[in-house]
Amino acid sequence: MTPLNALPAEGVPAETILAELEALRASDLPTHGGRLFAYVYDSGRSGIDDLAASAYALSAHVNGLDPTAFPSLLATENALVGAAARLLGGGPETVGNVTSGGTESLILAVKAARDAHPDIAAPRLVIPATAHAAFAKAASYLRVALDVVGVDPKTLRPSPTGMAAAITPDTVLVACSAPSYAHGVVDPVEEIAELAAAAGVRCHVDACFGGWILPYLRAAGVDVPPFDFSVPGVTSISVDLHKYAYAPKGVSVLLHRDGALRAPQYFAWADWPGYTMVNPTITSTRSGGPIAAAYATLRHIGDDGYLALARATAEAVRGLADAVADVPGLQLVAPPETTVVVFTSVDPDLDLFVLADELTARGWHTQPQFRFAQSDDEFDLTSLPRSIHLTVTASVAPRVAEFGQALTEAVAAARAYGPAEVPQAVLSAVGSLEPAQLTPEAIAALAGSLGFGGDGGPLPARMAVVNTLLDAVPPRLREALLTAFLGLLQRPA
Known about the structure:
Blueprint: H1 14-25, H2 48-59, H3 71-87, E1 95-99, H4 102-115, E2 124-128, H5 133-142, E3 145-149, H6 160-165, E4 171-177, H7 189-198, E5 202-206, H8 214-219, E6 236-240, E7 252-256, H9 259-262, E8 267-269, E9 277-279, H10 289-325, E10 330-332, E11 340-345, H11 352-361, E12 367-369, E13 372-376, E14 380-384, E15 387-391, H12 400-417, H13 424-431, H14 440-449, H15 464-472, H16 475-489
Parallel strand pairs: 2-3, 2-4, 4-5, 5-6
Antiparallel strand pairs: 1-7, 6-7, 8-9, 10-11, 11-15, 12-15, 13-14
């Protein structure tokens, strides 16, 4: 790709710039049409994007740094929080804030729990092994120790007693998922929250992924276990509106059962000569654009619209699961109880990573997941298999039969292609490395040997060998490899 010039000597006409951006977008994965099973959430409804874009433009320059200066932002944010609170069983004391996404919501939930206990010098956070990686990010940023509890390899859920056993006098927060991202499984929230409350510890439910759709799935007849503020021990919940509320990216809501629980979330600073800074979120300046766009989206779709979208999504999940079950050699990793279909290969001649490549070649973009080894006192040493993850949205419903045919063809092609093999020299060289040895030169050489272009890009047409290599190395080395590779890509133009 030719390097871009963001600051030319002379200004460029608006129509030229928009044409450039449109040309750049042509190389991106498709955000609409039901062929991308990760990263984006498409309702399949026409007109929503245009409405959201118009609402975004109206409030793009409104600054959330001081909502009293912009009452429109305060009103729309409070409306979004109120809608989320009502949907998730909140009462009259429930409060919350809009954040930039699920990761920020989780970081703030951990911050509020940590700062509520200034007497604890070394605070700790208890999570199941299937909890979102953003909890590890929060723990790293906030210097909170992470206690990870294993999950049952059959149910993919942690046992409540195992979670309770991990609680110590220094534990400030226990977290669970509704549902977990990797497998779409709802943790036993009722039992975990009860045990956390008995220990005097906060319990956060990460419903970022599916919290907006779970109540509608329940209304559509899906058996959804209790997970929200109707569960007494739950103290906070996060839910992303840019997922199953189908709002544009950049909108999540963090709810607390009451204002006292939220208070430590705030940051305030008056000991300098400028304005007194008071922030409910990590960012100070916040554009009102995403909030206005989310407000417009919710208003336009409405309660009845979300119920219809949930029904379409549930139908698509059932259809995709049936399509997987009909293919010899493939097996569902978990019963599809929410909005995720995740499957693995039980045929040694059917390489999942090769299958992902074959699906990509046919226009279907899935998310490969690496094997996960966990060591836990209750479950001993167990390994969750490599898998292919499908996040299902309403836009997929009309394309289920089409995907089933593509899956059958891709499986046949993957078997014919054979398992991916990493060159032994590459595997030996990488396996002998320590993360500290991953210099830019070493990463550039590795990327070149795996088929990447200069400076780490463009990506190879087939990623199975790369994924096989990453699957073979320990998690810490995988982290270092991907971090170094991302650093190779992110260079000034």
